[in-house]
Amino acid sequence: MRVDWSEEEVMLxxxxxxxxxxxxxxxxxxxxxAAGFDRARWHELAELGVLGVPFAEADGGSGFGARxxxxxxxxxxxxxxxEPLLAALVGGTALTHGATEAQRAEWLPxxxxxxxxxxxxxxxxxxxxxxxxxxTVARRGAGGWVLDGGKTMVHAAPDTDWIVLxxxxxxxxxxxxxxSLFRVPxxxxxxxxxxxxxxxxxxxxxxxxxxxxxxxxxxxxxxxxAFSAIERTLDLAxxxxxxxxxxxxxxxNERCLAHCRxxxxxxxxxxxxxxxxxxxxxxxxxxxxxGALTLKTAxxxxxxxxxxxxxxxxxxxxxxxxxxxxxxxxxxxxGAMGMTEELDVGHYFRKLMLVQALFGGSDHHLRxxxxxxxx
Length: 375
Hints:
By secondary structure, the chain is α+β, with helices and mostly antiparallel strands. It folds into three domains: 7-83, Butyryl-Coa Dehydrogenase, subunit A, domain 1 (Orthogonal Bundle), CATH 1.10.540.10; 119-225, Butyryl-CoA Dehydrogenase, subunit A, domain 2 (Beta Barrel), CATH 2.40.110.10; 228-371, Butyryl-CoA Dehydrogenase, subunit A, domain 3 (Up-down Bundle), CATH 1.20.140.10. Helices cover 50% and strands 16% of the residues. The protein contains eleven helices and ten strands. The strands form three sheets. A four-stranded mixed sheet has the order 1-4-5-8. A four-stranded antiparallel sheet has the order 2-3-7-6, with no helix packed on it. The chain is globular and about 80 Å long. The mean pLDDT is 95.
């Protein structure tokens, strides 16, 4: 696939590749996961400009937009990095679209500088992919707000400093109107996090809120008008997961090719068998198809809401399908060792299996794709 990357985008890709190769090698992964979130390493990423890649220059970022997010998350997926880059990207996007100009000016530079990690919490138990189904409520209290409810599958919840959290301030349970965003400190009284590791080894958690008192300025943007910002944030999150999967697919294809060229059976390398050659070609075609659609989807973020929704849903379905295909065959080509802890192939496979589940499954995105007609 021929892609016209700008000189700045090529430099960004090269810088990320070098950094990940030197600092995120697979051999380091067990120790990094055991050590947890490393603030020093996070500030190092900030000093390199990594955390500001997708955000506008007016907000203190580098202005690479969705293409920058693609480059960043593809590099993260290829390296199986343990840093909460997805959480920071999604949390920052929620601030970008949900906060006022003054709030963005105050908080986004802190995120970009690595001084404050923001996680995004919207999904709730039982809501599945219904974006407007928000049961967490925010009531006006003495001088501010009081929040009650819970959120599920919050990336980086155990490590974050702040949570950008959706709560209903008006309307009925499933209404689009009446949903607001709040900036909630991780250590707020009445907020608890049940931490766990996702199957790809990263930190996440369930968030419970019981009478969490917040000041009036904890409200982000206009009261009751956050649905559009939430939808844009979830679209960016789904797109970022696809970009991360693209990096994992590319890494698996490289490893499978090298393995088949080195491994011998019946007096010749696996790569000499025609059936194996066909499989490797099909895996490469999957990578190209996923890459082409993901790049096209990046451009859709500059278009209308309808175009963005349709392209994100198409990308999510297609990339999940290609990820499952490549992951399955990569494990099979490596035989019994394909799922061992010592080999990175199994870890890439687990990463790819999350693509279908995160930020809306294939059934949801197929329905949304069809609902928006031709875009």
